[in-house]
């Protein structure tokens, strides 16, 4: 599959990247010990949702505890008060937002990693008993290609295509990038049940969460015609619906929580695409938002 060039977008604030790894560097002391580590996740956040799905696919409830955080952070800077002690213990004089996801070490009370791809990889490689089911050996380049395609060709392109501040030509170019990416994925999935290999891997997790975001978040800032064009890739959306029926995927999905999180930080006006839902996700009532209505909170 080809990888689409990135669309421009405005970066969002982020916490420092703690990049400790489990079982890779003996100097770090982060050995793969069951029940030593803890995940702090808000599944309304796409990065956290990916980790939660991977954790369930690997059946790691007994090996790595999970603390579930609210959909909407409780601090004005977008952070969680509950995570502040971990950040304070891990970064001297830390003053930034205490963001999720976090992989912490219960033995030391400090953060191991806040880097979602590393966290998912370490869960898959260090705690799956050597089966390498979710992250197959030799699949690194394929998985990274899917990650780039999702980040650049879907997420960033959709954000740019729906930006009220962008020029019409820039929005049209971004929409073209988005549609080409979806078309490439749609073609790739003809006669395939999964993105790579013959089973569910983190490549499927990556793509599925990206499609959820496209429908539940980005769609609200696109016009109805663009959303109809997006929805036309039937094989791709059938794949998304099929995975939504898997307990590891649909079991963590709360579209109402995603909507609350989106409303809490997004003040951009809604577009006509908000009235054209693509998928009826598990637990989701039919979307009856009037055309042109704002998605802002009260």
Structure report:
The protein is built from ten helices and four strands; from the N terminus they run E-H-E-H-E-E-H-H-H-H-H-H-H-H. The chain is mainly alpha-helical. A four-stranded mixed beta sheet has the order 2-1-3-4. Helix 1 packs antiparallel against helix 6, helix 4 (140-161) runs antiparallel to helix 5 and helix 5 (168-188) packs across helix 8. The longest helix is centred in the middle third of the chain and has 22 residues, at 140-161. It has helices at residues 46-57, 84-90, 116-126, 140-161, 168-188, 202-216, 224-231, 234-244, 247-250, 255-265, and strands spanning 37-41, 65-68, 102-105, 110-113. InterPro entries: Glutathione-S-Trfase_C_sf, GST_Omega/GSH. Residues 279-298 are annotated as: Disordered. This is Glutathione S-transferase C-terminal domain-containing protein. It comes from Streptomyces chlorus. It holds the Pfam family GST_C_2.
| Number of strand elements | 4
Spans of at least 5 consecutive residues with low confidence: 1-13, 285-298
Spatial order of the strands forming the largest sheet:
2-1-3-4
Q: Taking Cα atoms only, what radius of gyration do you get, to the nearest Å? A: 19 Å
The sequence of SSEs as H and E is: EHEHEEHHHHHHHH
Shape: globular
Q: Proportion of β residues?
A: 5-15%
Average pLDDT, to the nearest integer? 87
> Helix amount, in percent?
40-55%
Helix tally?
10
* Largest sheet data: 4 strands, mixed
Distance between the termini: 43 Å
Q: Structural class per helix/strand content? A: mainly alpha
Q: Key terms for this structure?
A:
298 residues; mainly alpha; 4-stranded mixed sheet; 10 helices; 41% helix; 6% strand; globular; disordered N terminus; Glutathione-S-Trfase_C_sf
């Amino acid at each position: 599959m080809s990888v689409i060039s990135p669309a421009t977008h405005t970066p969002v604030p982020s916490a420092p990247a703690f990049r400790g790894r489990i079982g890779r560097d003996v100097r770090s002391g982060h050995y793969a010990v069951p029940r030593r580590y803890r995940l702090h996740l808000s599944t309304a956040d796409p990065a956290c949702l990916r980790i939660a799905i991977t954790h369930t696919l690997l059946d790691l409830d007994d090996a790595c505890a999970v603390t579930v955080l609210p959909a909407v952070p409780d601090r004005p800077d977008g952070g969680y008060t509950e995570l502040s002690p971990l950040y304070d213990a891990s970064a001297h004089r830390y003053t930034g937002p205490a963001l999720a996801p976090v992989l912490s070490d219960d033995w030391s009370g400090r953060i191991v990693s806040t880097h979602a791809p590393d966290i998912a990889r370490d869960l898959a490689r260090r705690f799956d008993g050597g089966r390498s089911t979710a992250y197959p050996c030799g699949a690194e380049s394929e998985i990274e290609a899917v990650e780039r395609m999702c980040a650049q060709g879907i997420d960033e392109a959709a954000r740019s295509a729906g930006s009220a501040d962008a020029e019409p030509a820039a929005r049209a170019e971004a929409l073209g990038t988005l549609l080409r990416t979806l078309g490439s994925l749609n073609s790739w999935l003809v006669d395939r049940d999964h993105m790579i290999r013959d089973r569910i891997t983190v490549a499927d997790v990556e793509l599925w969460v990206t499609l959820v975001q496209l429908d539940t978040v980005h769609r609200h800032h696109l016009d109805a015609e663009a959303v109809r064009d997006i929805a036309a890739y039937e094989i791709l959306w059938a794949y998304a619906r099929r995975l939504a029926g898997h307990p590891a995927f649909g079991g963590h999905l709360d579209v109402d929580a995603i909507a609350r999180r989106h409303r809490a930080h997004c003040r951009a006006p809604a577009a006509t695409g908000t009235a054209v839902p693509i998928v009826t996700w598990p637990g989701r009532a039919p979307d009856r938002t009037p055309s042109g209505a704002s998605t802002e909170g009260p």
